[in-house]
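Suppose you are handed only these lines of text.
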Amino acid sequence: MESGEKGDSPRNREPWFRGRTRTERILLVLALVLILLCAALICVVVYISVKLGSSDNFQACDKLECIRAAARVADGIDFSVDPCDNFYEYACGGWMKNHVIPSDRSFLASFSILRDTVQVKLKQVLEEDISEGEIEAIVKAKNLYGSCMNTTNLKAVGISVALPLLREIGGWPILGTNEGGNWREGDFSLTSLIVTINKYSNVPYIYPYVYLDSKDKKRRVLYLDNPGSILPERKHYDQPRDSPLMKAYVDLGVKVAIEFGADEEQARRDMEDILDLETNLVNITTPLEDRRDNEKLYNKFTVGEMKLNFTESKELDFTWRGYIQQLLQIDGVEFDLDENQTVIVVDIQYMKRLIPVLLQFPKRTITNYAVWRIMNNRIKDLPDRFRQYLGEYLKVLYGSSHIRSRWRKCVDVVVNYLGLPIGRLFVQRHFDEEAKAGISDMSDNILDSFRTILSELDWMDKDTREVAEEKALFIKRKIGYEDSILDDDLLNRRYENVTIHPVNYFENMLFLLKRTVIDDLLELRTNLYRMEWEVAPSTVNAYYSPPQNRIMFPAGILQPPYYHKDYPRSLNYGGIGTLIGHEITHGFDDRGRQYNKEGELHEWWSKRSVDKFKDLQTCFINQYGNFSSPEADGMKVNGIITLGENIADNGGVLQSYRAYRNFVSKRGSEENPLPGLNITHDQLFFINFAQIRCTIAEKKNFVNHLMTGPHSPSRFRVTGTLQNLPVFSEAFQCPKDSYMNPRHKCRLW
Ligand SMILES: [Zn+2]
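From them, the structure of the protein bound to zinc ion can be written out as follows.
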């Protein structure tokens, strides 16, 4: 039934393709080819995605912070330098060329630029009018700032504001019979002289302070230390009297005295005598190199035992018992003396020789110097011409006047004395709360890598290692700010004893100085209301506290270039991460290791491990001690006074790098690149480590820093640390024996 069947006619059964027009056929072939090409492309993309675990891997991070970071990193680098030749010059060369030292300071560093930015933000909040319902503590902060900025009043009151202070001390001999002078030798009492000035937080001859007892943290105790010197370093006092610095120092005192009416010639003779006395005192202080063994700085005596160990003098009217008693009797404290009260003498050699040295000088000079200690610190609070005198002296000392805009000085004053109220304003406006969790998470990871590193160390015996691990687990942390500052009542209560006048700045300063001392002494026997963590939240710095076994990162430093939540982690770990590791390692550096997990001075190391530690630390002393600073005519770094910081730098970078690699392993792939930069994330980690330290400074600043600073200059903090680190050389493929990859490497943690 073919015919009856429905079906295609023969024509209909013709091959389908041949039935198309030529154009149709060409188009069909093309379509087929395109479909195949697309399929192939999809296969490739799927393959790469599966292989790398992420489908956006080739896209650069396009968040605003990544773009900013890329620009900053690129601007900082000097691409003409080989990173293996000198990594500091490579990472900071561009930055150093792009910046100049402002005329009002002697150095500029990447962290000081962040500090400046924070100051601008603080200025803005402090200059806002006091609003209706503003809490008292914040009103006090704004009033303190306002009084400091009130230069009209400052000019109007002139030097008269300082006269009551001079009268209270008993007169400044250098002023002769002028107001503020009228000193009478017959009334001389060394005990009263020192205590009257100690009361204002200034420290002629003896520096008393109250702090946790290093061996019994349940209590606070009175410490007595040498007061340091006005010129920052003992070597300064070796210079001849006609050197520019000595002349500038004497001139400063003479100019101040003349402003108060002194006779110029007499003032000059007095200042020369002051300098002689101070030189003698400086020579009996224990040098910084010998102040690293904390056991030697902990010398406990009862008040009764002091006279048996330290010279007293009838001639000068000075007994140790009398001194301590008078100190505890100042207004607002008024404690009775307990013979069994303990005192810790920090610089024992100094305290033994203090009175014999003073006995070689006339009472006039002894008084002149004591008053000069407090007047020298108050110059900056007197009318602006006094600040100019100070500037002229500082220019000779540091190479620049250091006299910054008045508002910057006033912001600093508020941060120093009312840091919590101003900090509250700062964090409310400018702090990203997410940073707390971010930093906490990073600290966990870095502590984990510290503990892993501990388990790999072969120089430490098992027992000591276990205690070290426990100490690491006990490290507490403070991030951003103390929550109580957001509680109106608690913040007001913290400052209930502080009274601030809206206009009288000099009086405000004297009040605050006095209050600091009273509160300090009161804590010997009473519990004042204190917040658990009182570092100003706006501070651009990080800390480790040995007695608290605590690391601290205030809100001020949790910002670019150290940290941003949108940064690739390579930058965060290279930035704030290396600081977290640095602070953790301070608990285990040459000084921090002397404290146990509770923060008490107590030997928890086996003898063998201590010996090994000391062996290994010699490597660092030699490595850093051989660096000579091109910025200071080749002057060498002091490998001993910088030892603790160098150990912390070295430990910190390795811990943070390991934590970063763990993060990448968990993530399963490298992070997205920064836009426009052909730099790997491992390299970025090390570049940010260097760039947060870029510094330029006047030669004199370098010299002073090299003499006294606990940190090595930035260039060596960077090169010294990275020379010791094989993972750095791998990241930049530095050949063996290149400057950055020497064969001999130092390692502790
Ligand atoms: Zn440090």
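What can we learn from it? The pocket of zinc ion is lined by residues 582, 586, 645, 648 (CB under 6 Å). The CA atoms of residues 155 and 384 lie 8 Å apart.
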